[in-house]
Amino acid sequence: MSSVFAHGSSTIDNYLFALKNYDYLKAESIAEEFKNERLRIVTSNLANVLYYSGQGQIRLENLDGNDQLLIRVFVMLSKGYSLLYTNAYSPKPFQIFNEALKLSRELGNHELIKFCILSVIQVYNFEISQSNDNARLFLDEYKKMISDNTDSYHYNISLLLFNLRDIFFEIDLDTRFIKDFSQLMSKFHEEHKFWPIYYSTMGVLYESRNNYEKATNFHKKAIQLIKNEPFLRYIIFRSSIRLSQIMKEKKKLNRALDYLVDARKYMDKSDSTRSQYYLDLYSSEIHYMLGDYKKAFVKLDTAFNAGNILDYRKNSIEIARLNVKYRTQEKEIQLMQIRQRTKESTAIAVVLAVILFFAALTFFLLQKNTSKKRQLAEQEVQLKQQRVENLLKEQELVSIDAMIAGQEKERQKVAGELHDDLGSLMATIKLHFDNVKVEKKDSALKNAQKLLEEAYQKVRSMAHSKNSGVMSDQGLLPTIKKMAKTITETNALEVTVEDFGFGERMENSLELTIFRVVQELVTNAIKHSEATLVNIQMTQHKDNLNIIVEDNGKGFDWTKLDLTKSGMGLTNIEKRVEHLEGNFTVDSVLGKGTSILIDIPI
User: Fold this and answer.
1) Are the beta carbons of 79 and 258 closer than 8 angstroms?
2) DSSP string covering 273-324, please?
3) Sign of the dihedral through C-alpha 466, 467, 473, 475
4) Which of 107, 158, 311, 416 matches a 20 to 30 Å C-alpha distance to 435?
C-alpha cells in the first residue's frame, strides 16, 4: 500500500463520496487538503473533468510521471473521463477504466473500487453500448458493495437504464421497484443533483407506458431543477427531445418543433453526432406529418449519415470490450501465429485463393437462400397459429360477454318475479289477514300475521337487492363504496375506497362489468388471503380508468399458481379485462400481501 494512501484514507473517502454525489466543487476543495502535491493535482483534475463533462474547457495538468499506485489510479480516471467526454466512441476509456479497477483492487480501498466500477458502468450507459449484457456483471459486483443511500441510488439508476436498454425503447419494470426507488429518493434533499437525472429517466419510463401526462410533468421538473451545471446539460437535451416526441404523439406539431429548438441549444458537446442524429430524425418525422416532404427528406438524409457513423463507432467499442474481456481471463488466450511456408509458385496460390473464394461465395448464397426459405416457412406457421389463437380468443370473449349479460338478465328476471308475482301475492294474503273479523284473534293467528309481514318485507328486500347495484341511479363509485361499507360493518375485514378524478358516469354495461370485477377481487381477498385490510384505489383520467386492489394477506406465488384449480376466478377476471382492451397485472409476495393493477380505456 502506498504511503500517500495510508496517510489520507479518510480524506480520500470523503473526496470519492463527493464525486459520487455529483458535488464536484466540494470534491475539488477537498483535493486541496492533500499534502502530497501530485495527489492534489490529479484529484483536482478529476473533479474538474467530471464537472465540465466535455461541455467546457477541461483542465489536465501534469499527468505524466511514474507515481505511486493510488496516484496512478486517479491519473487513469482523469484520462479515461477526458477521452469519454471528448471522443465518446473511442475504445480507450473502457480499457483505461478496467486497468484503473484492477489497480484499485490491489490497493483494497472499497470506495475507490466502487468508483472505478461506476466509471466502467458509465461507458455502458452511453446509448451505443447499452445492449451489452456484460454490463450486468459490473452492476452485480457493485450491488454487493452497497453501503449507503448514494450507492443505492447509483445501483437503481443504472439498473433502470440497463432495463431501458436504449433510452428510447419501451421497457417493462416491476411496480415495486418504482415504489422503492421513489422512497429512496425521498432521503435526498430537494436540491440534490440526483433529482434531475431521476425525473428525466422516470419521464422516459412513463412515456414508454403511454402515460404522457406523468411523463411531461417529470421532464419539466428535471429541466426546472437544472441551473448552470455543465454535467447536467445532457439532461435538458434529453428531456427536451422527449417532450418533443410527446407533443408529436398528441399531434401538437408546432409545439414539438419548439422543443427541438430548445434541445438544440443544449446539444451534448461531447457526443454531438448522436445528438444531431436524434434532432434530425425527429425533425424529419414532424416535418413529414406537417406535409413539408422536402425538408423531411433533407433531415432524414442527414440523420441517416450520422447513423452510419454511430454504427461504425459502435463496432469499435464492441471490439475493445472483447479485447479487455479476453485479456482479463485467468489464462490469457494466446493467439497462435501461423506462418505458411510453401514452395509452390505464386500463380498456384492465386488460383487456389480464387477457387476458395467462389466456393465460399456459392456456399454463402446457398445457405442464405435456405435460411430465407426456412424463415418464411416459420413465419407462415406462426401466422396461422396466431390466426387460430385470435379466433379462439374472440370466441372466448364473446362467451364471457354473453355470460355476463345472461347473469344480469337472470338477476332482473328473478327480481321482477319476486317483486311483481310473489310480492303481490303475499301483499294480498296480508290484506286478507288484516280484514279477518275476529274480536280477539288467537295467538296462533297473530303469530302467523307477524311472520307473514316479515316474509313480505324480506321478499321486497331481496327484489330490490337483486335489481339494484351498478344498474341503479347510484353509479359505479357509490355502489363500490356501499359494498365496502357493508363488508366493513361485519368487523371481519376492513375495506377502504380511495377515488380521484371521477366525473360523469360511464356507459352502464361498462360500469356493471367493472363492478363485478372489483366485487370478485374483494371476494377473493375474503376467501383466500386471510387479510385484515383491503384497499381499493380508483383513478379516472380523461381516457383511462386505473384500479388497484391491495390486501395485507398472506400473498401467493403467481408464477406457480394453477389458475385452472385455484378457484380464485383470476383467469375469468383477466379475460373480462382483456375484453375491455385493458391490462391486468398481479403483484403478490408470500407473506406480504397482494396488489392487483387494472388499466381500462374508457
Assistant:
1) no
2) HHHHHHHHHHHHHHHHHHT-HHHHHHHHHHHHHHHHHHHHHHHHHHHHHHHH
3) positive
4) 416
Residue 142 makes CB contacts below 8 A (sequence gap 6+) with 114, 117, 118, 121, 151, 154, 155, 158
What are the strands, taking DSSP E only, across 33-102?
Answer: none
HEC secondary structure over 475-513: CHHHHHHHHHHHHHCCCCCEEEEEEECCCCCCCHHHHHH
C-alpha cell at 370: 435456405
CA distance 65 to 42: 11
DSSP 415-445: HHIIIIIIHHHHHHHHHHHHT---SS--HHH
With CA atoms as reference, report the closest residue to 277 among 311, 312, 303: 303
CA-wise closest residue to 161 among 118, 210, 193: 118
Q: Can you give the pLDDT at residue 332? A: 35
Average pLDDT of the chain to the nearest whole number: 78
Angle of the 253-265 helix axis to the 272-290 helix axis, nearest 10: 160
Distance between CA 407 and CA 428 in Å, rounded? Answer: 30
Q: How far does Cα 129 stand from its chain's mean position? A: 19
Contacting residues for 498 by C-beta, under 8 A, at least 6 apart: 535, 536, 537, 538
User: Are 578 and 522 spatial neighbours (Cβ–Cβ below 8 Å)?
Assistant: no
Q: How far is CA 479 from CA 484, 515, 523, in A?
A: 9, 8, 15
- 8 Å CB contact between 464 and 471: no
For residue 514, count CB atoms less than 10 angstroms from its CB and return exposed for 0-12, middle for 13-18, buried for 19 or more: buried
The number of CA neighbours under 13 Å toward the Cβ of 200 is 24
Q: What is the dihedral of CA 161, 581, 485, 523, to 10 degrees?
A: -90
Give pLDDT tens digits for 535-585.
999 998 878 899 999 999 998 887 776 655 544 578 888 888 888 889 999
For the chain, the distance separating the N- and C-terminal CA atoms, rounded to the nearest angstrom, is 67
Pairing of strands 583-589, 593-601: antiparallel
| Phi, psi (rounded to 5 degrees) for 30 | -65, -35
Cβ burial, residue 401 (10 Å; 0-12/13-18/19+): middle
State how far the Cα of 385 lies from the Cα of 392, in Å rounded to an integer: 11
Phi, psi of 145 (to 5 degrees): -105, 5
**Residues 515, 447: Cα–Cα separation, whole Å:** 41
Alpha-carbon distance of 285 to 305, in angstroms, equals: 16
Radius of gyration from C-alpha coordinates of the chain: 35
Q: Is 352 exposed, middle or buried (0-12, 13-18, 19+ CB in 10 A)?
A: exposed
Rounded to whole angstroms, how far apart are CA atoms 113 and 95?
16
CA 203 to CA 213: how far, in whole Å?
9
